[in-house]
Each structure stands twice: as C-alpha cells, then as structure tokens.
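[recover] target loaded
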C-alpha cells in the first residue's frame, strides 16, 4: 500500500515536541492542525465525499487549504488546487474538466458568493477570520459589507465543530517541532506537482 501525504505528515511529527504554524500572527499548534484535518475529513465524509471524488481548493496559501489537502489525502480524494485569482469562466471550465464534487473558496476573494451556486458543487466558505485572532472582527465586518453571501454554502469553521473525532482528538504529549506554514505549503505544492 502506498503511503499517503496525510500519513507522511503524521510520521514526520510522531515522537516530537508539539510545534506550531503561524498565520496572520495567529499561532496554531501542530496537534490542532491534525485535529482540524481529522475533523474536516470526517465532515467531508458526512457531506458524501468518497474515495476518488474531487474537491477543488479555490484558496490562497492559508490554513484551510493545508487542512483540506491533508483531509483529501486521508480520504483518498483528489485535491484540485487552483489559483484563487482565476476568473469565474476559468474556474467553471476547471470544475467541469475535473468533475469536482465540491468547491472551497475564500469569502473575501469572491464578492458575490451566489455566483458560485451555478456550478452545482458542494460549496464550503472559508474566511480569514477562521484562523486569526488579529482583526477577526474587521474581517467579519468586511465580508458582511462587501460580499453577497450564499445561503447554500457550508461554513468551514462550522464543519469543523460539527464533527469531532479521528485519531488526533487525544494526541500524544510530544508532537511536532514548529513547522512554518511556508514549509507545509511547499510540501503540498511538491506533492501536487508529482500527481
């Protein structure tokens, strides 16, 4: 059996002291990252994703993209990583070409979220506020004022809270040695290029 990226991530941290990643001045423990990966994988499963399905990540370099990538790896899903600034026409062509079942997007990069409903995907709305304490209220206010929200999109943070479980809900005491977000993204990018 071939080792998945998810399993490689776990093996890299086993037996090491718990570290952290930093995003927008917010530190997230390695154990929290792994808990989020497990919870998100279970949420995807509850939404009907199964081995071989495609989830499109229309996201910048952010914790949600990393969590989604490893959750896809864990479930045997295809993580279709696309540039977050591509046009809606390009995105639509990509979704059709890859037969994507779901689409994760960053709220502040899509001014009218309802525009995404036409793609008939399972929509997952991510926010800068999901992983930041720094100016969290400001990001929420900006989204509320500037974006036309879709009622058909699941909120990423609510999906994490909805399902709790997996092998890392009670991790070992010693885990991970602080890995910068950029290194995790580099791993994601290298794996994506290998596929």
């Amino acid at each position: 059996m071939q080792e998945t990226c998810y399993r490689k991530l776990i093996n890299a941290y086993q037996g090491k002291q718990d570290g952290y990643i930093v995003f927008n001045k917010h530190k997230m423990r390695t154990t929290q990252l792994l808990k989020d990966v497990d919870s998100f994988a279970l949420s995807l499963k509850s939404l009907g994703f199964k081995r071989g399905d495609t989830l499109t990540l229309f996201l910048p370099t952010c914790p949600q993209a990393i969590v989604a990538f490893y959750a896809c790896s864990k479930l045997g899903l295809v993580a279709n990583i696309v540039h977050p600034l591509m046009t809606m026409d390009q995105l639509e062509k990509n979704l059709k070409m890859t037969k994507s079942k779901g689409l994760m997007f960053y709220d502040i990069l899509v001014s009218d979220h309802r525009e995404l409903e036409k793609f008939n995907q399972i929509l997952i709305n991510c926010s800068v506020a999901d992983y930041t304490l720094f100016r969290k209220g400001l990001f929420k206010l900006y989204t509320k004022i500037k974006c036309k929200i879709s009622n058909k999109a699941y909120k990423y943070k609510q999906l994490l809270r909805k399902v709790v479980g997996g092998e890392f809900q009670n991790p070992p005491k010693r885990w991970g040695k602080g890995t910068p977000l950029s290194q995790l993204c580099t791993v994601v990018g290298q794996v994506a290029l290998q596929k």
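[recover] notes: The beta strands are 20-23, 26-29, 54-58, 78-81, 102-106, 122-126, 154-155.
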